[in-house]
Design a protein that fits this description.
123 residues; NTF2-like_dom_sf; single chain; globular; alpha+beta; six-stranded mixed beta sheet; Nuclear Transport Factor 2, Chain: A
Length: 123
């Protein structure tokens, strides 16, 4: 039996619907980077847990509260990085859509220090 990588275990405890309960998972100076030219009002960097909460609140506003994440795969890369493949589901401009995305997580000293959220935008 293969033991789960500790960074994968850490991310499995993350609940984006209740970030306050996951506060102990984040470094104080955590940064979330979001790249999506289709959402210029949401694209950018968000600092700290409050910044991440602001990011998800903005997504909720532009998707009428329909945004949800379905994890597909998770791969640890060494002792610092983890790559997750997810499908983001939402209602966008009155139609349901699914978007593939990857999130690259940097984990330092057992805390999430940085993340890059990169959705597919051309397919």
């Amino acid at each position: 039996m293969t033991k789960e990588h500790p960074n994968v275990s850490l991310l499995s405890r993350l609940d984006i619907s209740n970030l306050a309960e996951s506060a102990d998972l984040f470094a104080e100076n955590f940064v979330w980077h979001f790249f999506n030219p289709s959402l210029p009002n949401v694209q950018g960097d968000y600092t700290g847990l409050k910044g991440l909460q602001d990011f998800f609140e903005k997504l909720a506003m532009v998707t009428n509260g329909s945004f949800e994440v379905k994890p597909i795969a998770i791969t640890p890369i060494g002792d610092e990085l983890v790559v997750t493949h997810v499908k983001d589901r939402m209602t966008w401009e009155d139609r349901p859509i699914e978007v593939n995305a990857v999130v690259v997580w940097r984990i330092v000293d057992n805390r999430i220090k940085e993340a890059w959220d990169i959705p597919s935008v051309y397919t």
